[in-house]
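Worked example

This section walks through a single chain of length 131. The input is the sequence exactly as stored; nothing has been trimmed or padded.
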Amino acid sequence: MHCAPPPPSAYIMEYIMNTIQVKGGKKYQKDIAEETVWWCLGYFDIDDVNIRVKIEPYKDCWGTCSEGNKEQSYDITVVNNQSLRDFIATVVHEMVHVKQYVKNRWKGDGEEEAERLQYKLTDKLWKEDII
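Given that input, the structure is written out below as tokens.
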């Protein structure tokens, strides 16, 4: 006995598009930044965003996060000359800010949560052998 599949109208389809663009830095830094952003998107359950990461020399802080020009787009900068653990923690820190923007949940300037989670999640990511 062979059963036919249900008609296409019976399917509910949801298409979620996350895009990540990483510029600057060395290849391994780009790869690590991208993997870290993907991991954070999954961990924070964030969908349908555009993340642009720019890796650059130190200016006045180790990382920044701001809303981009388009809806659901975010621009992150990360300083390239830090230890590997600090580099990953900076990406995680800025991704906490992305989560705060997306979910519209902030306490104060959001720094307390970002600082509390940056190394905790970096170590979790490391233990899960993502990096």
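What to look for: The chain has one domain: 19-127.
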